């Protein structure tokens, strides 16, 4: 497998709506492997195909404890609650923001074997899934942030973002 280059800034793939995957081919499976390897190399917790310049509806997510999920054509079918929390992004290096998200989501997708999966997620995993699925729509966390901050400049009573860039 291979580590892919993460695109940043004004790369057009970051602002494009990703196309659905119509067939789960060997190329798609290799791409998912590369995405996972790239995410781990850059110490992220999620990665969407547009972040490596490929406008296809593919994401990989690992909220920790080696819980890697490779999802094809994911879509959020339910959202509830509201929370604000810190986010960063491998495609927007050095910028962090406070982003409102749903506290709970239900996502439907296909796994690499073509089986339909349904993921009910809360908290951090729900935040990661929303962030990565936003990438598939051409939306970045900076579009949703209510404020931006430098973790090093946060006051002693405030926690800097403990999670890795989403």
Report on the structure:
- The chain has helices at 26-41, 123-136, 141-144; strands at residues 46-48, 58-61, 69-80, 83-89, 92-101, 104-110, 116-122, 147-149.
- The model has no long low-confidence stretch (mean pLDDT 93).
- It is globular, with a radius of gyration of 15 Å.
- It has a single domain (12-153), classed as Alpha-Beta Complex (Peptide Deformylase), CATH 3.90.45.10.
- A hairpin with a 5-residue loop joins strand 6 (104-110) and strand 7 (116-122).
- Helices cover 20% and strands 32% of the residues.
- The two termini are 22 Å apart.
- The protein has a five-stranded antiparallel sheet with strand order 1-2-3-6-7.
- With 166 residues, the chain is an alpha+beta fold.
- It is built from three helices and eight strands, in the order H-E-E-E-E-E-E-E-H-H-E.
Quickly give the structural class.
alpha+beta
Q: Oligomeric state of the chains?
A: single chain
Helical residue percent band? 10-25%
CA distance, first residue to last residue: 22 Å
Order of helix and strand elements from N to C terminus:
HEEEEEEEHHE
Give the full name of the CATH homologous superfamily: Peptide deformylase
Overall structural domain count = 1
What is the topology, as strand order, of the major beta sheet?
1-2-3-6-7
Question: How many helices in DSSP terms?
Answer: 3
CATH class: Alpha Beta
Spans where pLDDT lies below 50 across 5 or more residues: none
List the helices and strands and how they pair.
Elements: H1 26-41, E1 46-48, E2 58-61, E3 69-80, E4 83-89, E5 92-101, E6 104-110, E7 116-122, H2 123-136, H3 141-144, E8 147-149
Antiparallel strand pairs: 1-2, 2-3, 3-6, 4-5, 5-8, 6-7
């Amino acid at each position: 497998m291979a580590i892919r280059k993460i695109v940043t800034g004004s790369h057009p793939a970051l602002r494009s709506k990703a196309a659905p995957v119509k067939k789960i081919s060997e190329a798609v499976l290799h791409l998912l492997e590369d995405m996972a390897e790239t995410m781990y190399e850059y110490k992220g917790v999620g990665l969407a195909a547009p972040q490596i310049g490929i406008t296809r509806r593919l994401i990989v997510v690992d909220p920790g404890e080696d819980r890697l999920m490779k999802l094809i054509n994911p879509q959020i079918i339910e959202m509830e609650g509201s929370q604000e929390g810190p986010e960063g992004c491998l495609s927007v290096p050095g910028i962090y923001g406070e982003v409102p998200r749903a506290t709970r989501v239900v996502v439907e997708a296909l796994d690499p074997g073509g089986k339909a999966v349904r993921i009910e997620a809360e908290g951090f995993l729900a935040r990661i899934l929303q962030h990565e699925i936003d990438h598939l729509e051409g939306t970045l966390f900076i579009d949703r942030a209510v404020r931006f901050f430098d973790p090093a400049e946060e006051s002693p009573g405030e926690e800097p973002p403990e999670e890795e860039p989403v």
